Amino acid sequence: MEESRRSFLKIGGISVLGLSALPVLQAVAQNDGPKFKPDPNALQARQWGMVIDMNKCWEEQQKRHCTDCIAACHKVHNVPDIADPKREIKWIWTDKYEHVFPDQAHEYVPEKIRESRFLLLCNHCSNPPCVRVCPTQATFKREQDGIVMMDFHRCIGCRYCMAGCPFGARSFNWGDPRPYLAEQNMEFPTRTKGVVEKCNFCAERLDVGQIPACVEACKAKALVFGDVEDPDSEIRKILDTHYTIRRKVNLGTGPNIYYIV
Amino acid sequence: MLEKALRGSQRYWSWILFLLILIGVGAGCFLLQVSQGLKITGMSRDVSWGFYIAQFTFLVGVAASAVMLVLPYYLHHVKDFGRITILGEFLAVAAVSMCLLFIVVDLGRPMRLLNVLIHPTPNSILFWDMIVLNGYLFLNIVIGWTVLAAERKEVAPPAWVKPLIYISIPWAVSIHTVTAFLYAGLPGRHFWLTAIMAARFLASAFASGPALLILLMLILKKRTKFDAGQPALDKLSQIVTYAMCVSVFFVLLELFTAFYSQIPGHMHGFEYQFIGLEGHGVLVPFMWLSAILAVVALTLLINPNTRRNEKKLTVACIAVFFSLWIEKGMGLVVTGFIPNPFETVTEYVPTVPELLITLGVWATGFLILTVLYKTAIGVKEEKLG
């Protein structure tokens, strides 16, 4: 009896050891070759950025209460339409000047600027605090093009990234978002309760050669998307010739969204 | 030794039953939260951390305070603490357990908790907080239990426990420092963006933890044969006095920096806490209560005559504990989100299920504390015969 128990424990112990060595073995055995081929049409950049020409945007807003970019983005990405401001999910949205640029707003700002709605989205910061604080790398910065991404399947819902983001660009699914979807885009995942989400600069569209949905939807051509590190890009030409501002630059996060006011 | 917790008076079992009922109610609400999501809480897009994380922050302090017994006893040979260091360590075990539970109940997807281990991320302070909290829990369980077992057998504790005890001293400091770093390094959250955060946390910890310990000692003295002894109580209450003075001083430093610089972002948090901001001020009465309790506590503690009076010391310790509980367990976390990144105010009030889950976690902590204390006191009573 004693002997058989001892041998059972021995065999069991060795088996457990063997099992625990398996992942190590797998890691060693893995070759580093690519697991899939990137689409040859994929759009590439060293750092994606966006210029928003607010004058063009306001003109269109005045003409027809334009919300084309918001509608396009939210439709493509299955962003739920939750009315409660405490629980809403926002990838791209508008707000007043004094809320968007609180450190620049003053009472003598021209009325048009003071009263008009500014377009907001994730700034895809060069030095993103949300990535720094995430304990699971569920939010990460794509090395190839600087897009700050969210892995909805890895997020544990600790909401540290929301505390870290100084731009209010992140939303949390306080409940199940699916009942708030009018229709579903089967090409993009829906989310579950308990995870954080945000604008992803349409990384999934760039990877197949399409420009972001908001840029495509903007009939006023107020949104210009491009590689800010490429001196020959269209976005750089605009930055060269126009005075642009960014949100909360003094915090050192390096926002990549530029506003022409 | 644990069997000592299985034999007790009717009063003991009623207390256990009471805690189990609270735990049951909390667990029920937690199941509701798992199925419905965190929408059953009062948290929002703007105030994305609330009561749970605030309790966690406060309780890290209670846990860290064990070092206020361990350090004088083992480094300065303060013999008076000899009989109660184990009780300090067991209080730390209960407090850290609550901390870990509060983190778990705050997660949107608790079943993915192990992602923190599967994808270790050294750049996240939360990763280090997990390391130091679990490490401190482990250290205190092992040290407390081993020393108690040795005490029961009336032998010296094994030699291997000594290094663990010495490690536990800086480790206690680390748990509250790392927890302060969770807040202190975030751009755009002015209220938390202060280099003195960790120091403030430690000062308030060394006041609130020992204050709770004194209250527990006084309860034990009344209800059991165990008496910590007047010298130990005197020394502990001195520690509370100094720590509370330093804690209040640190808050005044923050107020000076904010209001003399007159930088709006740095003033907003304190304005919200004490006079309200943009017409919002649910915290105002609580923060003033906290301030008044601090003044009462200091008055009673600084005067040696009132400090040595058991009744007045009890009042002072209750005042210290609740003053700091309001400051950390209610005010600190919420205020960091007010105003939000758009300079507007969204207020936060916890919901009933949220409060019941919180109560359930506290009850779990007190259950752990009760069982550990019953065991420790059982061993000590054995000696007294």
Automatic annotation (TrEMBL), chain A:
Record's keyword annotation contains Metal-binding: yes
Record's keyword annotation contains Metal-binding: yes
Residue span(s) of domain 4Fe-4S ferredoxin-type: 146-175
Keywords on record: 4Fe-4S, Iron, Iron-sulfur, Metal-binding
InterPro entries in the record: 4Fe4S_Fe-S-bd (IPR017896), 4Fe4S_Fe_S_CS (IPR017900), DsrO-like (IPR054822), ET_IronSulfur_Cluster-Binding (IPR050954), TAT_signal (IPR006311)
GO terms assigned for molecular function: 4 iron, 4 sulfur cluster binding; metal ion binding
Top-rank lineage group of the source organism: Bacteria
Protein name as annotated: 4Fe-4S dicluster domain-containing protein
Organism: Desulfoglaeba alkanexedens ALDC
From TrEMBL, chain B:
InterPro entries: DsrP-like (IPR054823), NrfD-like (IPR005614)
Gene3D superfamilies found in the cross-reference section: Formate dehydrogenase/DMSO reductase domain
Family named by the database record: Belongs to the NrfD family.
Keywords, ordered alphabetically: Cell membrane, Membrane, Transmembrane, Transmembrane helix
Protein name per UniProt: Menaquinol oxidoreductase
Topology of this chain in the membrane: Multi-pass membrane protein
Lineage summary: Bacteria, Pseudomonadati, Thermodesulfobacteriota, Syntrophobacteria, Syntrophobacterales
Annotated source species: Desulfoglaeba alkanexedens ALDC
One Pfam family of this chain: NrfD
Gene Ontology annotations for the cellular component aspect, listed alphabetically: plasma membrane
Coiled-coil spans in chain: none
Localisation per UniProt entry: Cell membrane
Transmembrane segments: 12-33, 53-74, 86-105, 125-148, 160-185, 191-218, 239-260, 280-301, 313-335, 355-373
